[in-house]
Amino acid sequence: MSTRIDIKPVAVSRSTAKLMKTNQTTSYRTGDDGDIEAGRDTSFTVLAEHNPFGNTNRFTDELGGTTYTNNIVIDWSTYDGSKVLGWYRTAMPTVGTYTWNQAIDNAIAFTKGPFTTGWKLANIAEYFSLYNFANTPANKLNYAPFSLVGDYWSSTTDANATINAFYSINSVQLHIYTTTKVAAIKALFNRYFTVSGTTLS
Comparing C-alpha atoms, which of 72, 80, 98, 85 is closest to residue 126? Predict the structure, then answer.
């Protein structure tokens, strides 16, 4: 008598312990970033393995494509096997600016499509994860599928002067500065999505 054994595929959790590449591929001397190209994945926009939608795109929309109908960008370089970071790719507010508290409040209240909760103001490390160092200083966030030029609040407070918060300056050159939380600046919202097969929630 034989016994049937069904072997089910095991979900492999993707290691995100290694930092991403900067996308600087031009070398200016031996041993520099462009020479070594240290970091995870094949390139800045190409993963070393497939995302749950079966392609190697670092950035997709929430359906695994590149139409971005809802202006949601999923960054599969952050996928840990169960959760992934996604961005609303349009600067907020669409008209005008926010103070720091307004940016946080509006992020918490933000809703897009079926994703009605969980949105937040991006922190400063999350901005760094998107910087494309192959681009000129003013265009570190200005590449497909993003098109961002300007200054953006982060949710990160300056611990040395807590009336200030960090923000990313991308309008003329790349800088990380702090300013008073009552300043008027744009913002980017993001959230973590739970991944179940090819369904995000």
Answer: 85
